[in-house]
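Second attempt. The first submission of DNA methyltransferase had a stray character pasted in from the spreadsheet, which I only caught after the job came back as garbage. Lesson logged: always re-copy from the clean sequence file. Corrected sequence (139 aa) follows.
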Amino acid sequence: MLKILESETSEEYLVDLDRVKDCVIGICEGKVFVREATKQGYNVAYRGDTVNLAHPKRKTRSGRVGKGVANTLLTSREQAVLTSDDKLRWLTERESWRLQGIPDSYFEKAAAVTSKNQLYKQAGNGVTVDVVYEIAKML
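This time the job returned cleanly.
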């Protein structure tokens, strides 16, 4: 199984909780409480889950939790994960590429000549290699 998450990231990837305060209710003991438009009013994300923070102020799509998976990648920083020290951080550009099944060697070549924003866009506009492979096998 491909390792997706990097073991260490810089502080630039930490989520500004003030920016997402309408979406993230709180973080406590390995859990992120995320506001959702459900009867309960929230969902809980654990380490290994992702939290989509693309629309923090919306009532119906403010935060979506991916249980052990990443939600659809878009073209900017929108997916976050809980760190081992209970901080919420964005997926890195490299992690976004890994989720698309793209090898680190390709990422490193692209990162040498491409901005961080463009790397997120390329991952978000990409098509997951494994998915295309499985579809092609059925044809």
